Amino acid sequence: MMSKQTxxxxxxxxxxxxxxxxxxxEQLGLSRTAIWKAVDALRKEGYVIEARTGQGYRLVxxxxxxxxEEVRSHLPATETVGRELRCFDELDSTNTYAKKLALTGAADxxxxxADSQTAGRGRMERRFxxxxxxxxxxxxxxxxxxxxxxxxxxTALAGVAVCEAAEQVCGIRPQLKWPNDPVVNGKKICGILTxxxxxxxxxxLQYLVVGIGINVLQQPEDFTEDVxxxxxxxxxxxxxPVSRAALSAALIAALDRLYAALKRGDLSEYLAVYRRDCxxxxxxVQLVRPDGSRQAVTAVDVDDQFSLVVRDEEGKTFTVRSGxxxxxxxxxxxx
Length: 335
Hints:
335 residues, alpha+beta, Arc Repressor Mutant, subunit A, BirA Bifunctional Protein, domain 2, SH3 type barrels, 3 domains, 10 helices, 15 strands, 31% helix, 24% strand
């Protein structure tokens, strides 16, 4: 309903002030009845709107919704990522939906957001818990038109983008567990899954989707027992509610900046930040290989491709990539 969206925009344009019904009527060419219906529709969605005789309507508070209107109300102009935005109450998986969009010709930078997922996925096909009203489940569809090897750091960069958004909106700066897990107090607050599609004959990158799930408002009971041991939420960390719309917008803006840097080929700033925030560097860790075998090593650096440089017990130094191994602490998820 256009009048509902426009009414909300007019109320937002005058925060804390009343907007007269007569002014709205003249500007939008709507009857007083239509205006009242627009206000009523907004109230049913959770917007608190005060009506006062002789003064009009005033926006008192907004609900924690992941709608396009709410996300865009916080989103600055972006170059590519987020110019096309699709928001849903529920999807099976934002990555799955974005890949379907890619096959229909959806634009570079299209972002898909869901309030919940019924089949959210992490690495190794692990299930990613995605309860309604608790987190942010967001996927960016990218069509870079560049050699696939130039995009190997994209998942690590997405972790930096999450840290930037959390710092901007929540005032805390997560660390990064290699290769791409934002962590606070030794527990994971986010999962990231990047998937690519390649042309079989040419090996050209057709598109990639970067899926990000952030734990925002979860309480301990919202996690299963096994997940609760290694996961936390921004609410648990800060003790304060977090606007998911504002955090989504900050994340989209951060992804847009890193995408531009990736296309320019200048990742020096991001690499410096990643090295600073990587919680593993300088610590003894376990390399966990796909066959389940483990090796104790010391993480000594992150190279220019965001791979982890490690030293084994015999003093030999070598590099591992995220697709080859996982890294765990010696006594827990991080430590």
